[in-house]
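User: Okay, second chain of the day. Same drill as before: sequence in, structure tokens out.
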Amino acid sequence: MKGHEISVVIPVYNEEKNIKIIHDKVMDVMKKLKKSYEMIFVDDGSTDSSFKVLEKLHMKNKDVKVIKFRSNFGQTAALNVGFKQAKSPIIVTMDADLQNDPGDIPKLLGKLKEGYDVVSGWRYKRKDPISKVFFSKLSNLLRGMVTKESIHDSGCSLKAYKKECFDDLELYGEMHRFIPTLLRWKGFKIGEVKVAHLPRKYGKSKYNYKRILRGFVDLVNSKLWMDYSTRPSYLFFKLGSLNVMASLFFLLYNIIRYGFNFNVGPVLLASVLFLIIGIQFLSFGFLGEMQAKTYHSIKKSYNIEKILGK
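Assistant: Same drill. Structure tokens below.
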């Protein structure tokens, strides 16, 4: 049996009034494109009638697949499961709140054909409250400064990926915002297109200040992972070296002031303290290096695009 050409992954959380509309719009776009497709809805523990609506759609449309979580685990978990379940060579993701326009899917697919592995939507003209737009722009600016990523809108859920992007990528926390960054680190080519952004018509936004804090933690985690996952000793060596240098500075100060008749006081104690901390960091680096070698012996730290020759 021939597989689908496109998988559309849509996380759902309390979007009962939007689901049927988003389903019909995606189906219309796929018919115009003349592409075989599957729609994968991941119900992230909805407390309204979302799952009942999804059940009806599944019964009417054989190309609709529904995955239901027992509880609300978050958008990252929903996307991660959707990626694992998708069988098509191209995966498109979007929100179920109707703020992403399925009519933009052809733009994403067209950009993929230019040789990109990932195409991210850029909500050029946001239709959200000013406070949400402000924090979104702030987080994108901060992410760009930390990760050196050039895309404008990492928070846009409307994206297209080649299936191989997820062969060796495990997501957790709020990591869905950093998928393009992580894939760029693995060597995939990232593109971007401007897409429409529509005002929310039904339901309530799930955005709140807690997501900002969680996103910041995951940003730091992503940066550390990209820079030091294969050689954690580099990070601990830097921290240990700084502490050893501080220890030598306090020791030198103590010698200059009191000579070699060491005065047991705050300065000398600080020197000993920083030396101990420095040695501990160096030890952690060695242990981290052993853990990294164990991890990467099981999970590859590289990604092969092509092999020429046998």
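The chain has a mean pLDDT of 82.

User: Thanks, on to the next one.
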